[in-house]
Write a structure and sequence with these properties.
This protein is an alpha+beta fold. It folds into 2 domains: about 80 residues; about 220 residues, Bira Bifunctional Protein, Domain 2 (BirA Bifunctional Protein, domain 2), CATH 3.30.930. The protein contains 11 helices and 10 strands. Strands 1-5-6-10-9-8-7 form a 7-stranded mixed sheet, with helices on both faces. It has a 3-stranded antiparallel sheet with strand order 2-4-3. The longest helix is centred in the N-terminal third of the chain and has 28 residues. It starts with a helix and ends with a helix. The chain binds adenosine-5'-[phenylalaninyl-phosphate]. The site of adenosine-5'-[phenylalaninyl-phosphate] has 24 residues, from strand 6, strand 8, strand 9, strand 10 and helix 10. Adenosine-5'-[phenylalaninyl-phosphate] binds next to strand 6, strand 8, strand 9, strand 10 and helix 10.
Length: about 325
């Protein structure tokens, strides 16, 4: 028994000396000094030792137990001091780049073009996206029964309101709100979202942004309108920008025109429609209590996505709304 205890002690100490990590140390503890370890079984064997040898064997058992426990604590302390047992973090390594956020290219375009008009003396006006029929239609000379009110061309809200509400289809609603709240002369631009049930393709989306401009004063003419749009085009797209007004029709302007800009598309100079414009119709001025005999004015409404696409060479409007960081990161 005494020999067996000696070899148990020797092999336990030899194994303990070879332990290099926390897991192996725990395995060693369970194997030798744990509740079901070899030392425990040796102690259980004490009952079979002849009576006269029991004191010596018992003493030896206690010595081995104390020695193994002491060596175990020593080894544990040595391993703890030699470094962490978990994954090692090298704090001198460069960190993981989380990527800096940036403004969306449309927000940037809105700021840039608003800034150009601000330099021409326009102040900024705002209006709600959820509108009533007065601001989206009646006051803009679009009477009841007009085809522009067709539910297939507008997002009406269901509900029991005295007046039907809809998501505005154009920022021209803000012209009306500006003229209702301010006396002429006035010179404002308004940017914001508009909504139309248009099918999505490379140049159309069902939610897009417009910038509306309105200038009301004495003796305002088409020349002022064309000059303003030309100045905007040159300031934003470069001194060689060319603009063209094409006769058109809008119920709230007379005469009305489409505003085109000449741009280089895939190497070729082409005319591209950016928006509509015209002289504010006297019926619109009457609707907001401005005397058309005394005041005249012009208005324009341009598609901001189309401007951003031209400015930044974006071929498909849908990319602006897909939130693909690889696309957005370019601007
Ligand atoms: C209007 O919305 C008029 N309110 C513009 C106006 C204002 C005329 C003031 C006179 C006076 P129009 O429907 O053509 O006009 O739209 C203007 C511009 O919005 C278009 O030229 C185009 O650039 C943009 N646009 C129109 N529909 C979409 C669409 N589905 N997706 C993206 N851009 C669009």
């Amino acid at each position: 028994m005494l020999d067996a205890l000696l070899s148990l002690e020797q092999s336990a100490l030899a194994e303990l000396a070879a332990v290099t990590g926390g897991d192996a140390l725990e395995k060693w503890r369970i194997a030798y000094i744990g509740a079901n370890g070899q030392l425990k079984s040796a102690m259980a064997g004490l009952k079979d030792v002849p009576k006269d040898l029991k004191p010596a064997v018992g003493k030896r058992l206690n010595e081995v137990k104390a020695a193994l426990e002491a060596k175990f604590e020593e080894r544990k302390a040595a391993l703890a001091a030699s470094g962490p047992s978990g994954p090692i973090t090298d704090i001198t390594e460069p960190g993981v780049d989380l990527g800096l956020g940036r403004r969306h290219v449309l927000s940037r375009t809105i700021d840039e073009i608003t800034d150009v008009f601000a330099r021409m003396g326009f102040s900024v006006a705002q209006g709600p996206e959820l509108e009533d029929e007065w601001h989206n239609f009646n006051a803009l000379n679009i009477p009841a029964g007009h085809p522009a009110r067709d539910p297939r061309d507008n997002f009406y809200l269901r509900g029991a309101w005295a007046e039907r509400l809809l998501l505005r289809t154009q920022t021209s609603t803000v012209q009306i709100r500006a003229m209702e709240s301010q006396k002429p002369p006035l010179k404002v631009v308004a940017t914001g979202r508009v909504y139309r049930p248009d099918a999505h393709d490379a140049t159309h989306f069902s939610m897009f942004h417009q910038i509306e401009g309105l200038f009301i004063d004495r003796n305002v003419s088409m020349v002022d309108l064309k000059t303003t749009l030309l100045q905007f085009a040159k300031a934003y797209f470069g001194a060689d920008a060319e603009v063209r007004l094409r006769p058109s029709f809008f119920p709230f302007t007379e005469p009305s025109a489409e505003f085109d800009m000449k741009m280089r598309i895939r190497g070729e100079l082409q005319w591209v429609e950016l928006g509509g414009c015209g002289m504010v119709d006297p019926n619109v001025l009457n609707a907001v209590g401005i005397d058309p005999e005394e005041w005249t004015g012009f208005a324009f409404g341009l598609g901001i996505e189309r401007i951003a696409m031209r400015k930044y060479g974006i071929a498909d409007i849908r990319w602006l709304f897909e939130n693909d960081a690889r696309f957005l990161r370019q601007f």
